[in-house]
């Protein structure tokens, strides 16, 4: 079924309009065959229109790719942020009964977190790290080394302190 028949069936054009358009197309084709200049002109117009449409498609495609890339980047950043929060909340080793203060640097400020003696030793040996779940709130979370390394990989802004790890075997060898 041709486009003409479809338009007629849908009632978008009348039979008279369809015949008129068909006659105009036939006349234009006939004239173009007769007149080579007119044919070349029509062909050039068609080619320039096709070229313009292709350029618009390519531009739109590039814009869509860029928007998709930006959206994917934003999704990845959000995923990393929420995953880091999940790590900080689930791996927290904070002790409410801790009585010692552990001081550390956050940027240019000196901060403190309450720890017990074992946590202080592990922080100093690089076996634990300190993270900050929310940048607006002065709350610090003590996390184990493996969680600190993962946090450093996925969202390093949340990891405040992680000292270089001290090997326990070196200390034992020095002591004997």
UniProtKB/TrEMBL annotation:
Biased composition range(s): Basic and acidic residues: 23-61
Positions of region (Disordered): 1-61
Species this chain originates from: Fluviispira multicolorata
InterPro entries: DUF2058
Pfam family, one: DUF2058
Protein name: DUF2058 family protein
């Amino acid at each position: 079924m041709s486009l003409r028949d479809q338009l007629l069936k849908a009632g978008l054009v009348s039979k008279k309009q369809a015949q008129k358009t068909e006659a105009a197309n036939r006349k234009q084709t006939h004239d173009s065959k007769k007149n080579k200049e007119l044919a070349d002109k029509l062909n050039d117009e068609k080619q320039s229109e096709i070229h313009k449409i292709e350029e618009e498609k390519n531009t739109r495609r590039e814009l869509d790719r860029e928007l998709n890339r930006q959206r994917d980047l934003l999704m990845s950043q959000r995923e990393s942020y929420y995953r880091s929060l999940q790590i900080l909340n689930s791996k927290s080793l904070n002790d409410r009964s801790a009585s010692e203060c552990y001081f550390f640097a956050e940027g240019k400020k000196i901060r403190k977190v309450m720890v017990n003696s074992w946590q202080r030793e592990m922080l100093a040996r690089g076996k634990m790290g300190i993270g900050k779940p929310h940048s607006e709130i002065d709350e610090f979370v003590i996390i184990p080394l493996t969680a600190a390394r993962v946090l450093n990989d996925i969202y390093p802004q949340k990891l405040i302190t992680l000292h270089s790890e001290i090997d326990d075997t070196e200390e034992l060898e020095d002591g004997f």
